[in-house]
Write a structure and sequence with these properties.
Layout: E1 6-7, H1 14-27, E2 31-32, E3 39-44, E4 47-52, H2 68-76, H3 83-88, E5 97-100, H4 107-114, E6 118-123, H5 126-142, H6 144-147, E7 150-154, H7 157-162, E8 171-174, H8 185-198, H9 208-214, E9 218-224, E10 237-240, E11 244-250
Parallel strand pairs: 1-2, 1-3, 5-6, 5-8, 6-7, 8-9
Antiparallel strand pairs: 3-4, 9-11, 10-11
């Protein structure tokens, strides 16, 4: 995993510079005013972002729960009929506690929170956790009720799930990194940067056992349609969408 610094250009406005220093101090990042040659965290217009300075024309990667696509999906998406909502077991008005052990930029967690789930995101990368926390901060300013449904934990998901001793977890959601073949430039950029940052997701199979021990009702694993089951363990059932399937493991506890 590369050594990530927090880049604070000398021409930053005072508000961004102060916020950047606070974020860097909280998460233990070294700050620098020298432009990086590769990946670095930075801040622009009050948004913490991860940027690849070898490709300076590309926008930085942020966790944006207020983006047009996120808001549109919340207002006009399938709601509780969305495949992911069906997979984790959303029914009626009951509020489920879902642990997202591989949150990435929080897009799937957003969908679950939008249909009423309490979502705990566990992120082991301090870089990604800092980005997620900033996204939740901005969401709190605009949609406090929705933001209140999120909890962010920083740690190794396998270890956190094994030592879990707090509130009941209804479902655990897993979306391990998998080589994507989509043509979207945005997705390609994000996946390339994440793979450069995090390396190979070599312990993905090891997520399943602690997830099954933790979840009271079910574990859901998002997979590309052609991919094998996680840890080669056949699911109880699968819910398919156009590009992915959701392998569902019923726990019956």
């Amino acid at each position: 995993m590369p050594d990530i610094k927090f880049y604070l250009p000398s021409d930053l406005c005072v508000e961004d510079a102060d916020m950047g220093r606070q974020v860097a101090a909280k998460w233990g990042f070294v700050t620098s005013d020298i432009e990086p040659e590769g990946l670095a965290l930075t801040i622009f217009e009050r948004q913490v972002q991860l940027k690849d300075y070898q490709e300076p024309k590309q926008q930085g990667i942020v966790a944006d729960f207020l983006s047009g696509s996120s808001q549109y999906r919340q207002q006009h998406g399938g709601g509780k009929k969305e495949p992911i909502a069906k997979a984790v077991g959303v029914k009626g008005d009951a509020s489920l506690h879902v642990v997202d052990a591989t949150p990435g930029l929080g897009r799937d967690a957003f969908v679950l929170a939008a249909v009423g789930c309490q979502v705990t995101m566990i992120e082991r990368s301090a870089v990604v956790a800092a980005i997620l926390e900033d996204g939740l901060r901005r969401l709190q300013l605009e949609e406090p009720t929705l933001a209140s449904r999120f909890t962010l934990l920083h740690g190794n998901s396998i270890e956190v799930m094994q030592s879990w001793n707090s509130a009941q977890v209804d479902s655990v959601y897993l979306d391990p990194m998998f080589p994507h073949k989509k043509k979207s430039a945005l997705v390609k950029k994000e996946m390339r940067v994440f793979q450069q940052l995090l390396g190979a997701d070599s312990d993905a199979d090891a997520l399943l056992a602690p997830a099954l021990n933790l979840a009271q009702k079910r574990v859901v694993v998002k997979r590309p349609n052609a991919a094998d089951a996680l840890a080669q363990k056949p699911p109880s059932m699968a819910i398919e969408s156009k590009k992915h399937r959701f392998d569902v493991y019923l726990c019956n506890k």
